[in-house]
């Protein structure tokens, strides 16, 4: 819930976006769950340590190699992790509207999020919701007793266009996933993917919700 409210429902984008206008329009949105075993976790962990972790002086908060306050090195120093700035974290946060081919820079290298996939990921192909659907979900989220799970169940039903590499019955009725398919999603968790249950449906629904937010100024200029 704080996830939805705190972010004002809007994408936080740094201009200029590195994803295409097709991605902004949700035409290339492919969501992969954070727990999918296809993510190269070793590489992600290594890069976070190498590029997104910094030791700072506990006194002046400057990086230890730039600290000039005279504090003694060692015990007072603090380790700061900026793991949320790693490309995969930014992808999972919806910054590129789930464009696997958006480019990021890590150190001196240009990378795509797709390059962090080793093996076959379960790919949820998303579509943006119509404005009337957005209005319905906005209504649910703004009620005094906000029902995030219910709102995200709708978002998942309405916004998942297809799935790849997940062996469940796939039935669409009147443009939305059937109860049968939703139940199969609910039950699809394994010890490997850690998925399944309402939390997974919320995860996917949230991805749909994020790509359904209005285009940002930066995206329209891209
Ligand atoms: Zn210092």
Describe this structure in words.
By secondary structure, the protein is an alpha+beta fold. The chain has two domains: 2-45 and 86-216, no CATH class; 50-81, no CATH class. It is built from nine helices and nine strands. It has helices spanning 2-6, 21-24, 41-51, 87-92, 131-141, 148-159, 179-186, 197-211, 217-221, and strands at 30-31, 53-56, 78-81, 103-106, 109-112, 123-126, 160-164, 172-173, 176-177. The chain starts with a helix and ends with a helix. The structure holds zinc ion. Zinc ion binds next to loops. The site of zinc ion has 7 residues, from loops.
Short description:
35% of the residues lie in helices and 14% in strands. It has 9 helices and 9 strands.
Bound small molecules, by name, code or SMILES, are:
zinc ion
- Low-pLDDT segments, ≥5 res: 1-16
User: What general outline do the C-alpha atoms trace?
Assistant: elongated
Strand fraction equals 5-15%
**Rg over alpha carbons:** 20 Å
Ends apart, CA distance between termini? 31 Å
């Amino acid at each position: 819930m704080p996830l939805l409210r705190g972010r004002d429902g809007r994408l936080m984008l740094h201009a200029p976006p590195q994803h295409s206008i097709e991605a902004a329009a949700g035409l290339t949105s492919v969501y992969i769950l954070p727990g999918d075993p296809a993510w190269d976790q070793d590489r992600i962990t290594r890069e976070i340590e190498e590029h997104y972790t910094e030791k700072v002086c506990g006194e002046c908060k400057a990086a230890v190699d730039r600290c000039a306050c005279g504090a003694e090195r060692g015990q007072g120093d603090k380790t700061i992790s900026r793991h949320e700035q790693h490309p995969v974290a930014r992808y999972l946060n919806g910054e590129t509207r789930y464009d696997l081919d958006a480019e990021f820079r890590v150190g001196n290298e240009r990378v795509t999020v797709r390059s962090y996939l080793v093996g076959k990921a379960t790919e949820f192909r998303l579509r943006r919701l119509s404005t009337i659907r957005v209005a319905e979900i906005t209504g649910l989220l703004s009620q005094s007793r906000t029902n995030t799970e219910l709102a995200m169940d709708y978002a998942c039903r309405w916004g998942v266009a297809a799935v790849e590499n997940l062996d469940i019955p796939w039935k669409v009725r009147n443009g939305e996933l059937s109860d049968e398919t939703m139940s199969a999603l609910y039950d699809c968790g394994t010890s490997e993917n850690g998925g399944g249950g309402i939390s997974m449906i919320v995860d996917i629904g949230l991805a749909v919700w994020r790509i359904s937010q209005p285009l940002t100024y930066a995206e329209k200029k891209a």
